Amino acid sequence: MVIGIGVAVTLLVPLVPLFQPYMIQFAMLWVLILMALTWDILGGQMGYNSFGNVIFVGVGMYTTAVVQREMFFGAEYASVAGQSSLSLVDYLTGLGIGMGSGAILSVALAAFLGSGILALRGHYFAICTLGLGVAAGELASGWDYIGAGSGLVTPLPPDGVGESSTFFYYVFFVLVVITFMLLRWLYSCRFGLAINAIRDDEDKAEAMGLHTTRYKVVAWCVAAFFLALTGGAFGNLMVFIDPTETAFAGATFGVWMVLMAVLGGKGRLWGPVIGATVFHVLQETFWTYLFGWQRVALGLLIVAVVVFFPLGIVGWVRERFAHRFGEAVDPAARTEQVTLGDGT
Q1: How many structural domains comprise the chain?
Q2: Which pLDDT tens digit goes with each residue over 165-212?
Q3: Burial (CB count <10 Å: 0-12, 13-18, 19+), residue 231
C-alpha cells in the first residue's frame, strides 16, 4: 500500500509545475540511488569494498555515445555534434541499442577483471579497484576515438521526447524499480545467502563447498550491468562526457557510492535508497547555501557518518526501535551490553 502510494506520487512529480525547474535534480536522485544500490551488492551484501564500480558507468556512457554517433552520423559527427538532428525513433533506437551494448560490454569486462582481482581480499581488493578507476580515466583521456581529453558530445534529444530532464527522470525511475525488485529477489534466494556467507566468513564458505569466486564474479557482473545502463542514460542527460569529471569520476561518484550506502545502512536493501536520498538533499543544500565551503561540509558529513552512524540510518533505527520491526529484545541482555560498553 505504502509502496504503491510512493510510486504514484513519484510518477506525478513531473506534472507539478512547482517541481519543473528542479527535474534535473530529481533525475539525479535516481542516478545516485542506482549507484548506491549497485555498490551495496559487493560492499554491503558481500563485504567487498570496491572503489572501481565507476568504471562501468564510464564504459556504459562512452559505449552508448559511440553507438549513437556511428549509427547515425559517422564521419560527419564533428560538424553536427550538439545539434538536434535525429528523429524521435532514431534517437530512442540509438539510445536503446547503445545502452544495451554498454551493458553487455560492461558485464564482459566485469567477468574478465573479476576472475582475476576478486581473488584479492580486504584493502588489497579496494586499492586495486581504486587503481583501475584511475587508469580507466587516464586511458579515456588519451583515446582520440572517444574524444580524448576534449570530451565527447552526445546527440541532443529531439523535441518529441519533451524536456530531456523529465524524459530521463522516468528512464532512471524505471531502472531504479527494476534494479530494486531484482535485487530484492536475488537477496531472498540462494544467491543472497551465498554472498552473505562470503561476507561473514569466506574461508568457512569455501570449506563447505561454496564456489565463492563464481558468486563474487556474478555479483560484480550484476552491478556492472545496471551501472552501464545508468551511465548510458546519464551521459545523454548531461549531453557532454568528460573522461575524468563525468565518465570515470572516482573522486566524486566513486566515493559517493560508498558514502551513500554507509549513510543509509549497507547490507540492507532500503539502506542505499535512504542514504542516497539524504545525501542528495544535503549535497544540494550545501551547494546552495555554503558555496565555497560545500566540500568542507561534505567532508564533515563523511566524518559524522562514520563516527555517529556506523550502522547507517536504517541500522540505527532498527537498533533503537527493534520492537517496531518485530525483533524481540531481552532487557537483561541489553543492560549487560550497555554495561560492558561503558567499561564498568
Answers
A1: 2
A2: 899 999 999 999 999 999 999 999 999 999 999 999 999 999 988 999
A3: buried
What are 76-92's pLDDT values in tens digits?
Answer: 665 455 555 678 888 89
Number of neighbours of residue 197 by Cβ within 10 angstroms: 18
**Residue 273 sits in the same domain as residue 341:** no
Instruction: Let me know whether 28 and 156 are in one domain.
Output: yes
248 in Cβ contact with 60 (< 8 Å):
no
Residues 211 and 320 in one domain: no
Q: Using CA atoms, how far apart are residues 281 and 302, in angstroms rounded to an integer?
A: 15
* Cα 61 off chain centre by: 13
6 lies in some domain: no
**Mean pLDDT: which of 34-43, 201-210, 281-290, 323-332 is highest?**
34-43
Q: How many alpha carbons lie under 13 Å from residue 38 in its C-beta half-sphere?
A: 34
Note whether 314 and 264 are within 8 A (CB): yes
In single-letter form, the type of residue at position 174 comes to V
Instruction: Confirm whether 3 is domain-assigned.
Output: no
d(CA 216, CA 291) in angstroms, rounded, equals 41
